[in-house]
Amino acid sequence: MHQYQIGLTASYIALTLGGFYFIYAIKYYISSLIALALFSMDTSRLPPEHRIHRILAQRDGEPVPIGDEPWVSIHLPFFNELNVARRILEACMDINYTNFEVLVADDSRDTTVEILRERGWQHGSPIIKFVHRKDRSGYKGGALKEAMKFMHPLAEYIVVFDADFVPPANILRQFIHQFRLHEKDVKPVAAVQGYQLHYLNRNENWITKGVRAEFSGSYMIERLAEEVYGAMKMVSGSVFMFRAGLLRELGWNHSITEDWDLTLRLYLEGFKVVYTPLIQAPAEIPTTVRRIIRQRMRWAEGHTYAVRKYFLSVIRSGRITLAEKLEFLYFAPYYLQSCVFIIGCMAWTVAQYYKRHPVFWTPTLGWSLVLSNFCAIPVMGLTGVFLEGDLAEDYSGVFSFIALSYFIMPYQAYAALKGLLEAEEGYWVRTLKTGHVTDYFLGVKLRGLIEWINRLRTKRDLDLVDDLPIIRLPVRRLLFFCIVFLVCWPLLEFVCGVSTGQCLVYNLGYVLRGVVNG
Amino acid sequence: MGRHYSVAEGNLYIYTTGRDRLLDLGVFPKELNLFEADSAWRISPWIAVVEDVLQRAIEMAQIILQLNDYERVSIPVPALEHYFLDGDEYSLLETIREVGVEVAPVVNLPDDAP
Question: Is residue B108 part of a domain?
Answer without folding.
Answer: no
